[in-house]
Amino acid sequence: MLDSYGLPEAIDPEHTKYGHGFQVQNKWKVPDKVMITQTITGAFYSKRGNPNHPISKEEILEQSLAVADAGAPNIHIHVRGEDGHNILCPKTFHYVIDPVRKYYPDRIISACMVPFQKGEWAKMIECLQDGLMDETPINTVAAFCGDTLFAKPPHVMIEKARILSELNCKAQIAVYSDGDIDNADRYLIKTGALKPPYYWVILPNLPGGSPMQSPKAMVEVLMHYVNRIQEIDKDSEIVVCASGRAGTYLASFAMLLGLNIRIGMEDTVWQYPHKDDKIKKNLDTWYQFSQMARLLGRDIYTAEEFKKKLGMVKPGGILRDARTNQPVLQSMVR
């Protein structure tokens, strides 16, 4: 009689006596590995927002080398001008990236090639032709980012996709709201401008993006993003940025979902969403999240493993004019 109630073993965690050939609690389909991209400075924040923020090229280089030395496999670079504003300057990018490449040639270098000012499109092409980075985003956005209109017309997205393909730089699809996901599908995926495997970067919770004013909103918004992306392509590789006030909790939730994360001082100034403490240095965020990944039983991708998964090749290629198919030389775009 007792046996019919499962006694003396009240719960068999894997099987039931009333059925055979299946487990009662299946193993979750969470990837064993996670890619952690470490940002350094970004284009958004100044020392007014966070007095610890790296602004000078010397500060950016120092913190890039520090996280590389600690094991970060993917380092995301922006550079600033003398006035502290984000710039696309090949010389300054070389100042930061060349030493990282020299001492850590096995790492992925990610950098934002987002032309904003006059003449920066040509500078973007020069940086790409120099093979400075392995990957860079295409922003499919039209939004007020803070108080600034940040919009990329469809022809700009498509032409950038073509340039990245020709110069063997992996395109990341960077989205700030759910409308950006549809923009990417219409202009980059359905047109064939990008080829799979698709590589998405989710940047919600910045002012002007999808708001996350509470833990519940954070969960709902991120699940909405992920579901819409996976409706387009279930095999997409997704990176979630620790952005805005939600930062730390958002990246933590993303790892629970089996996604990749981007951390550091580009996308937030706060250590935690419920406190006012500011991030002191990028190295702290690397130690925090690399430890968290391992506590969750997820190993961290090496750069080579992730490159292989995404079919990435080393930088370098020949850029051709879209109309004439003739090579475009650096001297023609400077």
Please give a quick description of this structure.
This protein has 334 residues and is an alpha/beta fold. It has ten helices and 14 strands.
Account of the protein in words:
The chain is of the alpha/beta class. It has a single domain (33-333), classed as Aldolase class I (TIM Barrel, Alpha-Beta Barrel), CATH 3.20.20.70. It is 35% helix and 16% strand. The chain contains ten helices and 14 strands. It has helices spanning 57-70, 90-103, 120-129, 154-166, 178-189, 215-232, 247-256, 282-295, 303-310, 330-333; strands at 33-34, 36-39, 74-77, 79-80, 86-87, 108-111, 135-139, 142-145, 148-151, 170-175, 199-202, 237-241, 260-264, 299-300. The strands form four sheets. The chain has an eight-stranded parallel β-sheet, with helices on both faces. Helix 7 links the parallel strand 12 (237-241) and strand 13 (260-264). Helix 1 packs parallel to helix 8.
